[in-house]
Amino acid sequence: MSVSVLVGSQWGDEGKGKIVDILGDRFDIVARYQGGANAGHTIVIEEQQFILHLIPSGILRDGIDCVIGNGVVIDPKALLEEIHFLENHGFKVKGRLFISHNAHLIMPYHKVIDSINESGDNKVGTTGRGIGPCYIDKYDRKGIRIIDLLDKVELEKKIRRNVDEKNKIIKNVYNKEELDVEIILKEYLSYNEEITQYITDVPAFLDKAIKDGKSVLMEGAQGALLDVDHGTYPFVTSSSPTSGGACIGVGVPPTKISSVFGIVKAYTTRVGLGPFPTELLGDEGEALRKWGAEFGATTGRPRRCGWFDAFLLNYSRMINGIERVAITKLDVLSNLDEIKVCIAYELNGKRLESFPTTVSQLERIVPIYQTLPGWKTDITSIRKYEDLPVETKNYLSFISEHSGFEISIISVGPKRSQTIEL
Ligand code: GDP
Ligand code: IMO
Ligand code: MG
């Protein structure tokens, strides 16, 4: 029996999709625990690329069951599109996908409110998928859950109540066009036909699976620094991508978790607004973006790029309890003569003891760098650690030592095969 949590350790897009796929053959069940269709997880098998937003990346491996936990917010249209896409590509979904009855639904008004919020002065740079407004309704106890699809009479009442309330805000506060409740009803009252078969009591399902000796990988979306509590608030997502979120997000108790695995990009990226101490502006950032093909898997937006931040990783390791990590996109650094790593932050001339999460402090800190020689060699065909250039090994040892984690997987390209296991 083993239950492991896999977390994005930076600001998302670390390569979680690829690594879940790699680890997938070692687990019986992969369970997604938070976020929604704001996520974009890429898996490349042979020459074919798959981008998944809601369904765990384990679905691409035969014999693995996949769970979408209560902590996930589900856009039913996006879910059905993803199911049909997978089925059209020959992957079996029916009988392998289990969706928590308690997961909340993204409604059309959530996306409208997300877009209205983003047009004002307090922009976060969201993905526009209605994530924040959906979690607001959940915590305001006004949300509509997957299980509500089963009772059409009650569902209609809830939708009418919510649309009426949101329309008042949309019209009177924002002076925007009201939503047509009849269109929303028609769409949402029809979802039970296809979705009912996946609805599951997930905590009971996982409890039995664990008792039966099955192993579970809990897949996080986003990354630790986008966590609503521990991230760079308010430039965060509205859920808990950190490992603690896994227990709440699927209903597995902390006593069952045996390990936490971090996914770490060999440099740093971030999409959307917010502080980014090691960001490279200008040509250097542009070059990293080009080499790493750093464009959002969900929105296509260019990702901001910068140096590896070991000070940030230390914080991420601490709040997640990360023991071992997979380092991804190491190949992207192969063009550089020299590579910088941030090892500390200074504020007002003093070294900081701990990572500051307030924007005002993060905007004023000075990153302290150490410069390492690059390797200037194509490493994408290397499959054994011993065969890596000495400069690459030194880089790996340096970031691992300064971040306090042990490296157990090294990814040197987007494909399944471009992986070195230690
Ligand atoms: P996720 O959200 O954490 O699953 O990551 P994304 O899929 O959004 O972004 C990671 C991107 O990097 C995808 O395009 C992957 O195909 C790609 N990728 C993953 N690992 C590697 C790697 O080791 N090298 C390179 N060059 N690309 C990688
Ligand atoms: P994966 O799982 C990177 C960012 C958005 C924005 C902030 C809030 O692919 O790593 P939201 O739409 O969640 O309200 O946006 O969070 N963000 C991500 N950045 N990877 C993601 O997911 C992200 N999901 C949300 O860009 O800054
Ligand atoms: Mg992504």
Description:
By secondary structure, this protein is of the alpha/beta class. The chain folds into three domains: 3-101 and 198-261, Adenylosuccinate Synthetase, Chain A, domain 1 (3-Layer(aba) Sandwich), CATH 3.40.440; 104-193, Adenylosuccinate Synthetase, subunit A, domain 2, CATH 1.10.300; 264-421, Adenylosuccinate Synthetase, subunit A, domain 3 (Adenylosuccinate Synthetase, Chain A, domain 3). 32% of the residues lie in helices and 21% in strands. It has 13 helices and 20 strands. It has helices at residues 16-23, 76-88, 108-118, 131-139, 152-173, 181-190, 192-195, 202-211, 244-250, 283-291, 310-320, 359-364, 390-403, and strands at 3-8, 29-32, 41-45, 48-52, 65-68, 73-74, 97-100, 104-105, 199-200, 216-219, 259-265, 268-270, 304-306, 308-309, 324-328, 338-347, 350-351, 366-373, 406-411, 419-421. A ten-stranded mixed β-sheet has the order 9-7-5-2-10-1-11-15-19-20, with helices on both faces. Strands 14, 16, 17 and 18 form a four-stranded mixed β-sheet that branches. Strands 3-4 form a two-stranded antiparallel sheet. A hairpin with a 7-residue loop joins strand 19 (406-411) and strand 20. It is globular.
Keywords for this structure?
single chain; 422 residues; Adenylosuccinate Synthetase, subunit A, domain 2; Adenylosuccinate Synthetase, Chain A, domain 3; 10-stranded mixed beta sheet; 4-stranded mixed beta sheet; globular; binds guanosine-5'-diphosphate; binds 6-O-phosphoryl inosine monophosphate; binds magnesium ion
